[in-house]
Amino acid sequence: MKLTKRLRFIGGIIGIAVGAIIAAYGVQGFIVPSGLSGGGVGGIALLLYYKLNIPIGLMTFVLNIPLFILGWREVNKHFVFKTIWGLVIFSAFLDLFKGIQPIAFDDIFLGALYGGVISGISSSIVFHFGGSLGGTDIVSKVIQRKYGVPMGNSALAINGVIIMISWAILGSKVALYTLVTLFVYGRVLDLIQSGVPSKSITIISDQSEALVDRIMIDLGRGATFLQGRGAYSNEPKNVIICVVSLPEIGRLKQAVREVDPLAFMIVQNAGEVLGRGFVSNE
Any transmembrane segments, and where (predicted)? Predict the structure, then answer.
């Protein structure tokens, strides 16, 4: 057991380092050549680099020091430790990768697009192993704990202020394309974190037993019965709840049509599904 925990810890440390290196590569390879800014502490560091030529990595680390002090007192110590580790690697490679440009391009949109994609991929790796790259992540966690404000809302407000500063210093074009980067980053992060989209299905039918048999045989999925009662008829009914992957939704609809054409079915998006047959929750 101890050996397994130790291996997981070492694997997590290596995973965070890999994610941090990819993130640094994305900033220096696409964001900086396009003259784009960013959100959070990274956006401030980029502004200082463009105007005062202060190394991005060094300034990113310095600006995070007071946030670490805040986070150490208010947030989980393991999270802060992993964040410090990730930020050290990220800051070091930001300056080591200075001047790198994997693909020569002069299109700011491509810089915003691919910068956002790489940032989303790298952050998802770091988050998967329980760390972060500092900045607004720590501030947002503290605000959430103290005042109950969702992390997404506080991060959006902080990033909005920094984008407005970028607008004033670098101009509207850079600020607007920076928003493209942040949007792509968020979408890529959500996609990777949530996995392949799934659908949550609610079915109300007089043929519930037969329907569940078809679902288990045709799709290989389990289902759950909830006890319901018809508001008009006042008769008890079985309500079927099941979750299927996106490619399976067509087969499920066909099965429902064949067993009970009068069945009432609700299809909803399932943002994240953990458990057997989906993403492991271990």
Answer: 7-25, 56-73, 79-97, 109-130, 156-185
